[in-house]
């Protein structure tokens, strides 16, 4: 077989497989953007979960999208029906890599540190858990490693349809909140992260209002209802939109906000991609920390537990409320 670099440069069809959550997809799109801008002759396909569809609809850097749910046997069906010259696995799963191997996808690129890494024929020697880079940079680095070229890491702004923009503008008018004169607090994390207590978010929302006059809109999905209600009950001036918005509507809402405050979860990355200021609350362990998963934005502040004790470095109760308030006020006044 030809050298991996040669296969890439002679390739026409490239696939990127990312079938997990919203935030992961936001941080994978820079990789696709880097490929398309540096190698415009390549046809890029994205293999994903349909849950992320609204993020990637009308993305100018993607030629084809294949959703697992559209094929009766999922990724097996995709690889049986589609042949690619190169397949990147930024966050590999065994069944996905095995399917690519069994269907003879020509060049399979992924981590050298999985028990099934023998299934890759170009291996990336990077321990992401050490957080020496940001997740978005790790993804772009896969392409740099293969091609030998230095590439830019840039977030991709979601495309928001006029229909959803109008819906959110109408909603904001009913609350007299036009002109980025509100913040968003998203207290849940979908179980993907350690969380600051909703009581703290409630006190924060009220404190920000008292010092800036900015009201808080509370967002979340069905699993966050209890947390959002707690925030709403403490912050009397807040408006609770929990479980009332589709993902498309939430993205449009975020684009109109002055600041988003949340635990480590996908909405942080959506806000950063939209150019909205972000305050993120994170644990300290490297594989969970803002070094790897923080908002990829200069207009952001990340706060972690104030503890040097490794046994308590991820205790979100040790996050200093006053530091969070100071960070929120700093970003609001920018």
Please describe the topology of this protein.
Elements (H helix, E strand, L loop, with lengths): L3 H7 L2 E6 L3 H17 L4 E6 L4 H4 L7 E4 L6 H8 L4 E3 L5 H9 L4 E5 L10 E3 L10 H13 L14 H13 L7 E5 L11 H15 L2 E4 L6 H10 L4 E2 L6 H9 L3 E5 L2 H8 L3 E5 L8 H4 L6 E4 L17 H12 L2
Parallel strand pairs: 1-2, 1-4, 2-3, 4-5, 5-6, 7-8, 7-10, 8-9, 10-11, 11-12
Summarize the structure.
With 334 residues, the protein is α/β, with parallel strands linked by helices. The protein has helices at residues 4-10, 22-38, 53-56, 74-81, 94-102, 135-147, 162-174, 198-212, 225-234, 247-255, 266-273, 290-293, 321-332; strands spanning 13-18, 43-48, 64-67, 86-88, 107-111, 122-124, 182-186, 215-218, 239-240, 259-263, 277-281, 300-303.
Structure notes:
The protein is α/β, with parallel strands linked by helices. It folds into 2 domains: 4-147, Rossmann fold; 162-332, Glycogen Phosphorylase B (Rossmann fold, 3-Layer(aba) Sandwich). Helices cover 39% and strands 16% of the residues. The protein has 13 helices and 12 strands. Strands 3-2-1-4-5-6 form a 6-stranded parallel beta sheet, sandwiched between helices. The longest helix is centred in the first third of the chain and has 17 residues, at 22-38. The termini are far apart.
Principal-axis shape equals globular
The percentage helix is 25-40%
In total, how many beta strands?
12
Strands of the largest sheet, in order across it?
3-2-1-4-5-6
Total helical segments: 13
Q: Would you identify the regions where 5 or more consecutive residues have pLDDT less than 50?
A: none
């Amino acid at each position: 077989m030809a050298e991996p670099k040669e296969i890439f440069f002679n390739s026409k069809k490239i696939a990127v497989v990312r079938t997990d959550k919203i935030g992961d997809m936001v941080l994978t799109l820079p990789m696709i953007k880097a490929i398309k801008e540096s190698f415009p002759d390549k046809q890029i396909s994205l293999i994903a979960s349909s849950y992320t569809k609204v993020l990637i609809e009308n993305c100018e850097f993607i030629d084809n999208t294949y959703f697992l749910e559209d094929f009766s046997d999922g990724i097996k069906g995709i690889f049986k029906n589609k042949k690619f010259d190169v397949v990147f696995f930024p966050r590999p799963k065994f069944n996905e890599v095995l399917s690519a191997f069994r269907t003879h996808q020509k060049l399979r690129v992924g981590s050298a540190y999985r028990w099934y890494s023998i299934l890759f024929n170009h291996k990336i020697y990077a321990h992401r858990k050490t957080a020496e880079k940001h997740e978005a940079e790790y993804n772009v680095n896969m392409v740099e490693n293969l091609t030998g070229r230095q590439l830019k890491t840039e977030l991709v702004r979601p495309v928001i349809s006029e229909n959803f923009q109008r819906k959110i503008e109408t909603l904001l008018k009913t609350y007299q909140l036009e002109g980025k004169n509100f913040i968003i607090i998203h207290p849940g994390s979908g179980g993907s992260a350690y969380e600051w207590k909703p009581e703290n978010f409630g006190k924060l929302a009220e404190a920000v209002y008292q010092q800036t006059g900015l009201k808080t809109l509370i967002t979340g999905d069905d699993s966050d209802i209890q947390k959002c209600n707690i925030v709403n009950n403490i912050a009397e001036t807040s408006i609770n939109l929990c479980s009332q918005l589709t993902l498309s509507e939430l993205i449009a809402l975020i684009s109109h906000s002055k600041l988003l405050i949340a635990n480590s979860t996908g909405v942080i990355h959506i806000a950063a991609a939209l150019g909205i200021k972000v305050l993120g609350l994170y644990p300290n362990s490297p594989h969970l920390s803002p070094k790897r998963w923080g908002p990829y934005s200069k207009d952001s502040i990340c706060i972690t537990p104030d503890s040097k004790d490794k046994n308590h470095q991820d205790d979100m109760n040790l996050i200093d409320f006053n530091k969070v308030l100071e960070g929120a006020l700093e970003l609001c006044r920018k």
